[in-house]
Design a protein that fits this description.
289 residues, alpha+beta, phage-related protein like fold, seven-stranded mixed beta sheet, four-stranded antiparallel beta sheet, 6 helices, 33% strand
Length: 289
């Protein structure tokens, strides 16, 4: 009977883990306004794009034919959707010290945080590859430039602008204004901040830099880890309804550890690199006396 209780407890912890991670991913995508979510096979190659503009001479004489400028969409650096595999173990000494359920739950929570960091880190690395660079005076001027350029790049009326700033650049404004800071997926964000729909405040963005893009430019792709050939192999992954992450618990008697193994691979990315606006924050010009 005790063995069955242990199995039920581990199963319940697995369900809690995947639901916690799945809900946090869902909340992140909702906050960013991501509408395009693609379940794909592991190993799939995701294409991203950038634009190339060949601008013709605009000095045209009266009555002459205006030459055509050319705008092309080129493939940028592709993203390969790969599985991310992680494993952690809790020693029998810690199980004895904290109790089985608590020891597993404590370490599972830390593992969730590290998996979140992995998704965030890959996304911010891609933001740094954006190809549209402009300047703005102070944070307010930088966000204004970000908003304006996003609206220009994405011509649909009312494109939702998502901006990313360093905490030190936002601190003066946050100290002086009555602003509610919210948190999703380990990211602090503010809604409707200085004219921008969502401003995410994170040290993963360099100081004096703002990144921005449109919500419609953001996508989330992931390899499904439940069902199919994986289920046939008998890995016994527990997943939530999204299938974004799978988890399994096992006892390693040779090492006297309780082990947790996860399988995931979600990629949050911007489809158009030219749709990522990088704004350098410049000091406001000092008026001459």
């Amino acid at each position: 009977m005790a063995e069955n209780l242990t199995e039920k407890l581990v199963k319940a912890q697995s369900i809690d883990f995947v639901e916690n991670f799945g809900n946090s991913i869902t909340s992140l995508l909702t906050m960013l306004g991501v509408q395009r979510k693609f379940p794909m096979a592991a190993g799939s190659v995701i294409k991203t794009y950038k634009s190339k503009v060949t601008l013709q001479n605009g000095e045209v004489a009266k009555g002459e034919i205006i030459p055509l400028s050319k705008v092309e969409m080129e493939e940028a650096e592709p993203i390969e959707l790969a599985y991310s595999k992680h494993r952690k173990a809790v020693a029998v000494e810690d199980i004895q010290k904290y109790g089985f359920a608590r020891a597993i739950a404590m370490t599972d929570e830390k593992l969730v945080r590290e998996l979140q960091k992995e998704v965030r880190g890959n996304f911010f690395a891609q933001l740094g590859k954006g190809t549209t660079a402009v300047d703005g005076e102070g944070l307010q001027g930088a966000l204004a430039q970000a908003w304006g350029n996003v609206q220009t790049k994405f011509e649909d009326d009312g494109a939702i602008t998502i901006a990313f700033v360093n905490p030190m650049d936002a601190s003066d404004y946050l100290a002086k204004a009555n602003i509610t800071i919210q948190n999703e997926f380990g990211l602090n964000y503010v809604e409707n901040f200085l004219g921008v729909n969502i401003v995410i405040i994170t040290p993963q963005v360099k100081a004096k830099t703002v990144y921005a893009t449109a919500a419609e430019n953001l996508c989330f792709a992931y390899p499904i880890v439940n069902g199919g050939e994986i289920a046939k192999a008998g890995f016994d992954f527990t997943t939530d309804e999204t299938g974004i992450i799978g988890i399994t618990h096992a006892i390693n008697k040779e090492r006297l550890t309780a082990e947790t193994t996860t399988l995931s691979g979600g990629a949050l990315f911007a489809e158009r690199l030219d749709g990522i606006i990088k704004v350098t924050i410049k000091a406001a010009a000092t008026p001459s006396v």
